[in-house]
Write a structure and sequence with these properties.
- This protein is an alpha+beta fold.
- The chain has helices at residues 2-14, 16-36, 51-62, 88-102, 141-156, 175-193, 196-224, 230-258, 263-290, 298-329, 357-367, 369-384, 405-417, 437-449, 482-502, 511-545, 549-574, 579-582, 594-622, 627-654, 662-694, 703-708; strands at residues 72-78, 107-110, 125-132, 160-165, 392-393, 425-430, 454-457, 461-462, 468-475, 505-509, 590-591.
- Helix 11 packs across helix 20 (627-654), helix 17 packs antiparallel against helix 21 and helix 20 runs antiparallel to helix 21 (662-694).
Length: 735
C-alpha cells in the first residue's frame, strides 16, 4: 500500500492542476445539486420491533386521518393572581384564541379547554391542544407565526401564555460551533507549523471536504429521506477528521523536507507513510459509524452512513488534494524546524535544538512505565465511578432551559395538572375479532386503573369500526422518571393478562413510551455494537501493526477512556457537579443515545491517535531501533502533531457546549472529555508505558498468522527501494 500511495502522492503533486480541477468540479456539482434540492424535512422516525412502534402503526391503520405523526402544541393559559380561567373575560379570550388557532391550513384540530376538561381543579390554569397535519420539522413558518401570534394576543389581554409541544421545534443550526472550532484549529495549526500557509492547508481542505459532504447530503435528502439533522454529525466529524488527516500529511511532508528530500519526493513519501496511517485510521472511523446500523433505528443508521461518507471524503482529500496544494505552495511550505517570515524569519536555527517535549515526555515514561501506567489507570478508573449510577432517558420539554416557552409551558402544566400530565401514555386496545370489543375496552381500562402511580384513566375512545380503542393514561410522575418507566412495564404486563383471557392486544405508545422503548433498544444494542466495532477494528489493527498485544491494548485503553467520559457526563448532567459552569439548568437522566453514540464516534477517533502515534513507533522498530527507543522516536515525530489534532478535536466538540439545547450540550461535553482522556491519558501515557513494559513482546505475532496476513506496509519499508529516485526528483525553477 505504501508504494501505491507514494506514487499517488507524486502524481497528485505533479498533476496538481488536474487534481485541483476534479475536486473543484465535485464541490460545484454538489453545490448545484444542493441548491436545486428541496429543503430537508424531518426524517421519518421509526423504531422497528418495538411495541410503541407497533401501536403507532396500528393507529395509522385503524384511525385514518388522525395525523398520528403530526406536530402538536399545547397553548397553556394562566390567570393573574386572585383570578380564575373560568372568569367570563378570560374564557372569552381563550375561546377567541382557539378560533384563531383553528384557521390555519395545516391545523387538523384544536380542543377547547372548556369542553375537553382542559381547566385545572383550582381554575387557575387551562390549556388548548393543537394538532397539525404535518410533523414539526415540516410545519410552514406561517403556521408557527400564527401560533405565536395567537398566544401574544392572549398575553395582551392580561393572561400568562406559554406554548409546549414540538410545533415550535426548529431545525438545529451548528454554524457558531463550527466557527469556534475552526478558529481554535487555526490558532493550533499556526503554533504547530509556525507557518500561516502550512496551517491554512488543512483548514482549506477540511472545509472543502465538509462542503462536498454536506451539499451531497442536502441534494439527496429528499430521495433518501434524510432529515435536516443528518448533516450535523457529518459536518462535526468531517470537519474534525478532515483537519486532522491533512495535518498529519502536511506534518510528514515537512519532516521529509527537513531530511533533505526534494518536494515531489517528500510529497510522495508523506502520502506513502502518513497517508497509509490516514487510510487505516479512516477505516476505523467508517467501521464505527456504519456499525451504528446494528441498532436498527433507521434515522441513526442514515446519520452514521452520511458521516462515514464525509470521513471517506476527508481521507481521499488528504491523499490527493493535499499533495496537489503542496505543489502549488512550493517553497512557501518550509521544512520542519523552519518558520515563515511572519513567525520566525524564514531560516533554520543555527544552534542545535534541545529534545522536543514529546521526546522528553516519552523518555520519562520509558524510565517510569509502571508508575505512569498505574497513575493513568487509577485516574481514569476514578473518573469512571459515576458511570455506575448511569440512568438513561430521552430529553423532553422538562430538560429545556427555563428561558424557553416550552419549558415554562411544561412547568405550568405540572403545576395545574400534575407532573405526569406532560407525558400521558396512549394505550391502544386491538379487539378485532372479539365478540364484545366494548367489554374488552372496559376490562383493559379497569385493570389499568388498579395500578399504582396512575392519576387518571380516560374512557376508551373507539374508532369508527368499533374494533380498536385508545385509552389515555396520566401517570403520577414526570415523563423521564423511573417510576413512569415502571408504570409502562406494569401496563404491558396487565395487557398480557388481557390478551391471555380475551385474545385482544393491549399496546402502550405515545412519546413517553416511545422514549422508553428507544432507550431499551439502544441498551440492548450496545454490547453487540461493541463486539462488532471493536472486533472488526481489532482485526484491522492486527493487519496494520502485525501484533496481537498492541491492538488489544488499544481496545482496552479505549474502553477505559469511554467509561471515564461517561462518568464525567453523569457527574455533570445527572448529579449536577459544575452544572453552573456548564450551563446545566436541569439535571436528569442521560440521553439514551449517548453511550452508543460515544462508543461509535470516540472509538473511531481514538484509533486515529493510536494509528498515527504507534505506526511511527513501529516504523522505527522495523528500521532497527530497540523497543524503548522506538517509543521515544515515535513521540519525537508524532506527539506534537497528535496533541494538536486532539486539541482541534476538543475545540470542535466543545463549541457545542454553548448550545441552548441540553442534548447538544451533552454530546459536545461528552465527546470533548472523551478525546481529552483518550488522547492525553491513554495514548500519551498508558500506551507508551505498556509498550515499554512489554518490550519486544509488544510486536509478537504467531508465525502462522504472519504468513496469512496481507502485508500493507504502513511503515513505508518498501519506499527504501525508491530512495534512489530522489536524485531524479528536481524541483522546477518556478514552483
Amino acid at each position: 500500500m505504501a508504494t501505491f500511495l507514494y506514487r499517488l502522492g507524486r502524481f497528485a503533486f505533479r498533476r496538481r492542476h488536474l487534481v485541483a480541477l476534479i475536486w473543484v468540479a465535485l464541490l460545484a456539482l454538489a453545490g448545484i445539486g444542493a441548491a436545486g434540492a428541496p429543503a430537508a424535512g424531518n426524517s421519518s422516525f421509526s423504531i422497528p420491533g418495538t411495541e410503541a412502534q407497533k401501536a403507532f402503526d396500528l393507529l395509522e391503520e385503524r384511525f385514518p386521518g388522525s395525523s398520528a405523526d403530526g406536530a402538536t402544541a399545547r397553548v397553556v393559559f394562566k390567570a393573574p393572581a386572585g383570578e380564575k380561567m373560568t372568569d367570563a373575560d378570560h374564557e372569552a379570550t381563550v375561546r377567541k384564541t382557539v378560533d384563531e388557532l383553528s384557521d390555519g391550513s395545516e391545523v387538523a384540530r384544536v380542543t377547547d379547554p372548556y369542553q375537553g376538561g382542559g381547566v385545572s381543579q383550582d381554575g387557575t390554569i387551562a390549556y388548548a391542544s393543537v394538532s397539525y397535519k404535518v410533523s414539526g420539522m415540516e410545519l410552514e413558518d406561517s403556521s408557527r407565526d400564527a401560533l405565536e401570534g395567537a398566544a401574544e394576543d392572549a398575553r395582551d389581554a392580561g393572561l400568562t401564555v406559554e406554548i409546549g409541544g414540538d410545533a415550535l421545534q426548529a431545525v438545529p443550526h451548528t454554524g457558531s460551533a463550527e466557527i469556534i472550532g475552526i478558529g481554535v484549529a487555526a490558532v493550533v495549526l499556526v503554533v504547530t507549523f509556525g507557518s500561516l500557509l502550512a496551517a491554512g492547508l488543512p483548514l482549506l481542505t477540511a472545509v472543502i471536504g465538509v462542503g462536498i459532504g454536506v451539499a451531497s447530503i442536502t441534494a439527496l435528502a429528499g430521495a433518501l429521506d434524510l432529515g435536516s439533522t443528518t448533516s450535523i454529525l457529518a459536518s462535526m466529524i468531517g470537519l474534525a477528521v478532515g483537519i486532522d488527516y491533512a495535518l498529519f500529511v502536511v506534518s510528514r511532508y515537512r519532516a521529509e523536507l527537513a531530511e533533505g528530500r526534494g518536494r515531489e519526493e517528500a510529497a510522495g513519501r508523506a502520502v506513502g507513510t502518513a497517508g497509509s496511517a490516514v487510510v487505516f485510521a479512516g477505516l476505523t472511523v467508517v467501521i464505527a459509524l456504519v456499525g451504528l446500523s446494528v441498532v436498527n433505528i433507521p434515522m441513526l443508521t442514515k446519520m452514521g452512513i452520511a458521516a462515514a461518507g464525509t470521513v471517506a471524503l476527508a481521507v481521499l482529500i488528504a491523499l490527493t488534494l493535499i499533495p496537489a496544494l503542496l505543489g502549488y505552495a512550493g517553497r512557501r511550505v518550509r521544512p520542519a524546524g523552519e518558520k515563515g517570515r511572519l513567525l520566525g524569519g524564514g531560516r533554520a536555527a543555527k544552534k542545535p535544538q534541545r529534545p522536543n517535549m514529546g521526546t522528553r515526555w516519552a523518555s520519562f515514561v520509558v524510565r517510569r512505565p509502571l508508575a505512569v501506567l498505574l497513575l493513568g489507570v487509577v485516574g481514569l478508573g476514578a473518573a469512571a465511578v459515576p458511570a455506575a449510577s448511569l440512568e438513561l432517558g430521552l430529553p423532553d420539554d422538562g430538560s429545556q432551559p427555563t428561558s424557553t416557552t416550552q419549558r415554562r409551558a411544561y412547568d405550568l402544566l405540572s403545576e395545574g395538572f400534575g407532573p405526569g400530565f406532560n407525558g400521558p401514555l396512549v394505550v391502544v386496545v386491538d379487539a378485532e375479532g372479539s365478540d364484545d370489543p366494548q367489554a374488552v375496552f372496559q376490562r383493559a381500562a379497569d385493570d389499568i386503573k388498579g395500578l399504582d402511580n396512575v392519576v387518571n384513566v380516560a374512557p376508551a375512545a373507539p374508532n369508527k369500526a368499533g374494533d380498536t380503542a385508545t385509552i389515555t393514561v396520566v401517570p403520577d410522575s414526570k415523563p423521564s422518571s423511573v417510576t413512569t418507566e415502571d408504570l409502562v412495564h406494569d401496563i404491558r404486563d396487565t395487557g398480557a393478562d388481557v390478551k391471555a383471557d380475551t385474545g385482544a392486544d393491549v399496546l402502550v405508545t405515545g412519546s413517553t413510551a416511545m422514549n422508553i422503548d428507544v432507550s431499551q433498544k439502544l441498551n440492548d444494542a450496545l454490547v453487540p455494537y461493541l463486539v462488532l466495532v471493536v472486533g472488526l477494528a481489532f482485526l484491522l489493527l492486527i493487519v496494520v501493526f502485525r501484533s496481537i498485544l498492541v491492538p488489544l491494548k488499544a481496545a482496552l485503553g479505549f474502553l477505559l477512556s469511554v467509561l471515564a467520559a461517561l462518568g464525567a457526563v453523569v457527574a455533570v448532567y445527572q448529579w449536577g457537579w459544575l452544572s453552573g459552569l456548564m450551563g446545566v439548568e436541569e439535571t436528569g437522566p442521560i440521553m439514551s443515545m449517548m453511550p452508543i453514540f460515544m462508543v461509535g464516534v470516540v472509538f473511531g477517533l481514538a484509533m486515529d491517535y493510536e494509528v498515527f502515534l504507534v505506526t511511527r513507533m513501529r516504523e522505527a522498530h522495523v528500521h532497527g531501533e530497540k523497543p524503548a527507543q522506538a517509543v521515544v522516536t515515535g513521540f519525537k515525530y508524532s506527539a506534537r502533531v497528535v496533541t494538536a489534532a486532539a486539541v482541534i478535536m476538543m475545540a470542535v466538540f466543545s463549541g457545542f457546549i454553548g448550545s441552548s439545547e441540553q442534548m447538544v450540550k451533552m454530546i459536545g461535553f461528552g465527546l470533548a472529555v472523551a478525546v481529552l482522556f483518550d488522547a492525553f491519558v491513554v495514548r500519551m501515557a498508558i500506551v507508551p508505558a505498556v509498550l515499554a513494559l512489554l518490550g519486544d513482546k509488544a510486536w509478537w505475532l504467531p508465525k502462522w498468522l504472519d504468513r496469512i496476513l496481507p502485508d500493507v506496509d504502513v511503515e513505508g519499508e518498501a519506499l527504501r527501494a525508491e530512495g534512489g529516485r530522489q536524485d531524479e526528483d528536481r524541483e522546477p525553477a518556478r514552483a
